[in-house]
Amino acid sequence: MTTQWHEIYLGIENAKTMSDLADTASRAVSRIGFSNWLFEVKSTCSGNDSEFFSDRGQYESWIKYYKDADFLPGGSPVYAALRTKGLAEWSDGARFVLTQCSWIGADLPALFSVGREITPVRVEEKATNAPYIAWLAGAIHAKFIALSAPTPKTGDVCSLTDRERELLRWTALGKTAGEVASIVGLTTRTVYFHLKNAMLKMNATNTLQAVVKAMVLGLI
């Protein structure tokens, strides 16, 4: 990972509020180079009211408007769907299926909200940095869910082994089990075994939930 991407990762990791996360996303776009990206903003998952930004000034104005607005996700039906079936499939390349939407490209899901509406953002890479696009979406998504989650009860804290923490950290970066196995020198089956144990300890139904809970609890 280059210094540029490492700094972006630290910004995501250290975000304490949704505003912090929005700032990090905006900086990531600026540092990578706006000319390499195409943004599509949809105000609802129905696909109505779609807008493309090819000018940085327009996009930054949009960022500021959404960042300064009240963040009220609790009353949003889209948010409710995101927290159930949209919360979602941690699939190859850290791509996500949000509610009823299936978009080509990497999603920065539900990063900004105004009132009762969640606004998903689709980001398509036009030139370079392709290996990092899905990773960025996955990292921001995981942090968004962590910031959205209720404060955990003391009784929810559990002990993970160093190996389980390590594998969850790689998973949080959007790596598949096979990729993680290659990185840490284990078989894919062994990686699945450790992740399954982590899921059981975290009382999670899937790997993404285990990652989110571990992040919220400060275990990874």
TrEMBL record:
<feature type="domain" description="HTH luxR-type">
    <location>
        <begin position="153"/>
        <end position="218"/>
    </location>
</feature>
<dbReference type="InterPro" id="IPR036693">
    <property type="entry name" value="TF_LuxR_autoind-bd_dom_sf"/>
</dbReference>
<dbReference type="InterPro" id="IPR000792">
    <property type="entry name" value="Tscrpt_reg_LuxR_C"/>
</dbReference>
<dbReference type="Pfam" id="PF00196">
    <property type="entry name" value="GerE"/>
</dbReference>
<protein>
    <submittedName>
        <fullName>Helix-turn-helix transcriptional regulator</fullName>
    </submittedName>
</protein>
<dbReference type="InterPro" id="IPR016032">
    <property type="entry name" value="Sig_transdc_resp-reg_C-effctor"/>
</dbReference>
<keyword id="KW-0804">Transcription</keyword>
<dbReference type="InterPro" id="IPR036388">
    <property type="entry name" value="WH-like_DNA-bd_sf"/>
</dbReference>
<keyword id="KW-0805">Transcription regulation</keyword>
<keyword id="KW-0238">DNA-binding</keyword>
